[in-house]
Specification:
The complex is a heterodimer of chains A (about 190) and B (about 230). By secondary structure, chain A is mainly alpha-helical. Chain A folds into two domains: about 90 residues; about 80 residues. Helices cover about 80% and strands about 0% of the residues of chain A. Chain A is globular. Chain B has three domains: about 80 residues, no CATH class; about 30 residues; about 110 residues, Immunoglobulin-like, CATH 2.60.40. The longest helix of chain B is centred in the middle third of the chain and has 25 residues. The chains are: A mainly alpha (about 190), B alpha/beta (about 230). The interface between A and B is large, with 62 and 65 residues.
């Protein structure tokens, strides 16, 4: 468990403004979760929290840390080595994998409903950003960045945020459908 | 942005390639640099889309399917398939062509119905293939079946011939040739005759797969019912 003083030490190093610090903390946590997931660890969230706890403890103990994120990366690698071998990690992840459901019409209906929940310009942006194939993607995205007056990185972040919201929304809807069908379906 | 990695290098990293040292350098960048992390997420999303659209073939498709399974993201494929449908370009000319084709097909179907007195094949049937799996096949039987999945096929109906079982449900496991779990499906009840399970065609990798059907007891215990080796050909 992380103590209040330790958490404050970490947040204080991430940013002087409390709100910005909390945002940077969550962003760092999400990057750590993705790192452990990409390394096929089945306990990505727990490991990410443990990294942040260890960094916070070190800071509270007065350890001189130059760049918190790079230090966290070192701790994450060490923790990964401590946890499992790559093969074991893969097996754990496989056991936890989510299985796709059969009827894609449900996914399509879910997507349409979730697109309708977005603001119209967000829906338009996401459909255009992910249209095209191969190198056509790059050209479309560069053109969009120019039209919107955005850096490519900023547009990428915006598109990823919308896509992740959209995916979560569709998954939620499919999950509800699955629960309903499990409750209803007592025979084949 | 401090990193200098290409999309190809990012793809290699995601697929689990590279030495521990290279992966450690990569890890440091992705955790410390939010822009680099975003680029990796974009490459990942683009590969999921490419897989969903059927743009990846053979070993490439297999490797990315394995990536999604081993990182617990196989469910993203389903959403990507829906997204692919929605971003598919539609030109007015093509729409009219589709309307004309639909009209011609309706006329043909009517002609077929009237003169041959046989029902036309429903269009939806073309999107699904059936695989009949005989009963009482065990792991040691050494037989193998074949499943041909054409490009347009969206679903595969696995039709297990089953005997009466005192089961409260069933569980299906699909593994690849290396023994990695690709799919697990459960359902309630036990039918007489045939147990049909519909699975998205995208879940089937090219090559040999193993299908294991288990009966579930009231307390959740598993008992093996049949085991099939099937060669998937795309």
């Amino acid at each position: 468990m992380i103590e209040k003083a330790q958490l404050e030490a970490l947040l204080g190093r991430l940013d002087a403004d409390a709100e910005t610090a909390a945002l940077r903390y969550e962003e760092l946590r999400q990057r750590l979760i993705r790192y452990f997931r990409w390394e096929r660890s089945g306990e990505a969230e727990d490991l990410a929290d443990e990294v942040l706890n260890r960094v916070a403890r070190k800071l509270a103990d007065g350890e001189a840390i130059e760049v918190v994120e790079r230090y966290a990366a070192g701790v994450a690698r060490m923790l990964l080595r401590e946890s499992l071998t790559r093969i074991q990690r893969r097996d754990v992840a496989l056991k936890k994998m989510v299985v796709p459901e059969p009827v894609d019409r449900e996914a399509l209906a879910g997507l349409d409903a979730c697109l309708a929940e977005l603001q119209p310009e967000q829906a338009k942006l996401i459909l255009r950003y992910y249209a095209g194939q191969g190198s056509a993607h790059i050209a479309v995205r560069n053109q969009m960045a120019m039209e919107l007056g955005l850096e490519l990185n900023a547009l990428r972040n915006r598109a990823l945020r919308i896509r992740e919201r959209l995916e979560a929304c569709v998954q939620r809807r499919l999950g509800k459908l699955r629960d309903k069908s499990m409750n209803r379906d007592t025979s084949i | 942005m401090k990193h200098q990695y290409s999309r190809a290098e990012i793809e290699n990293y995601l697929l689990g390639h590279g030495s521990e040292e290279e992966r450690a350098r990569f890890a440091e960048e992705l955790i410390a640099d939010a822009d680099f992390d975003a680029l990796i997420r974009e490459v990942e999303a683009d590969k999921v889309d490419a897989l969903a659209r059927g743009e990846l073939k053979g070993n490439d498709a297999e490797a990315w399917r394995e990536f999604l399974a081993s990182t617990g993201q196989l469910d993203r494929l389903r959403v990507a398939q829906a997204l692919a449908e929605r971003v598919r370009p539609r030109r007015p000319f093509r729409v009219w062509l589709q309307v004309a084709a639909a009209f011609l097909m309706m006329v043909s179907a009517a002609w077929w119905w009237t003169w041959r007195e046989k029902p036309p094949v429903p269009l939806v049937a073309a999107l699904r293939v059936n695989l009949d799996l005989p009963r009482d096949v065990t792991r040691s039987a050494g037989k193998e079946g074949q499943l041909q999945i054409a490009g347009k096929v969206g679903e595969v109906e696995l039709r297990f011939a089953v005997a009466e079982e005192p089961a409260s449900g069933y569980r299906l496991r699909m593994r690849n040739a290396a023994g990695n779990l690709l799919l697990e499906r459960e359902g309630k009840g036990w039918p007489t005759g045939t147990l049909a399970i519909v699975v998205p065609a995208a879940s089937f990798p090219q090559g040999m797969i193993e299908l294991e059907l288990l009966a579930l007891g009231a307390n959740g215990s598993e008992s093996p019912v049949s085991f099939h080796r099937v060669r998937v050909v795309r």
